[in-house]
Amino acid sequence: MFAYFLNKVYFCFADGLAAFRTFLKTEFSDENIEFWLACEDYKKIKSPAKLVSKANKIYNEFIDVKAPREVNIDFRTRQDTKQKLLEPISSSLNEIQAKVYSLMEKDSYPRFLRSKCYQDLLNRTQMYCQRKSV
């Protein structure tokens, strides 16, 4: 269900992504969705030089133990990712991205479904659908 939500939110509904981001900010864990989105952008890069630059930016912002928006990952994953980013390719962040995704799926998303942010999103969506059907 989370995969469906996140894919639909990311690709179709800016309001849904905004609601999820707002919710994560209230929980002080918005670095997770920001990291996930940065990884999605990273995978689209074709230029090797830009890939290196983006890899360094993501590492410094989210992965390094001194990162200002450090994601909550285990030591082993952090070290493996650091090694992979020495010679980055488009799939270098797949493992760590999957772990952060899993964390959001199991932890943040169920709480989001019970949140005011989600209820507000549902109400806006229902009102929009009702106006469209008239």
Entry summary:
It is a peripheral membrane protein. 75% of the residues lie in helices and 0% in strands. The protein has 134 residues and is mainly alpha-helical.
Please tell me about this protein's structure.
Residues 16-122 form the RGS domain. It comes from Astyanax mexicanus. It is a single chain. The chain has a single domain (2-133), classed as Orthogonal Bundle (Regulator of G-protein Signalling 4, domain 2), CATH 1.10.167.10. The chain contains seven helices and no strands. It has helices at residues 2-11, 14-26, 31-43, 48-63, 75-84, 94-113, 116-133. Helix 1 crosses helix 2 (14-26) and helix 2 (14-26) crosses helix 3 (31-43). The mean pLDDT is 88.
Sequence of secondary-structure elements? HHHHHHH
Q: Helix/strand/pairing class, anyone?
A: mainly alpha
Q: Rg from C-alpha positions?
A: 17 Å
Instruction: Estimate the mean pLDDT confidence.
Output: 88
How many helices? The count is 7
CATH fold annotation: Regulator of G-protein Signalling 4, domain 2
Count of separate structural domains: 1
What is the CATH superfamily label?
Answer: Regulator of G-protein Signalling 4, domain 2
- Biggest sheet architecture: none
Give the proportion of residues in helices: over 70%
Given as residue ranges, the uncertain stretches (5+ residues, pLDDT < 50) are: none
End-to-end span in angstroms? 30 Å
CATH class: Mainly Alpha
Tell me what portion of residues adopts beta-strand conformation: under 5%
How many β strands by DSSP?
0
The CATH level-2 architecture is identified as Orthogonal Bundle
Domain RGS: 16-122
Membrane topology: Peripheral membrane protein
Protein name: Regulator of G-protein signaling 8
InterPro entries: RGS, RGS_sf, RGS_subdom1/3, RGS_subdomain_2
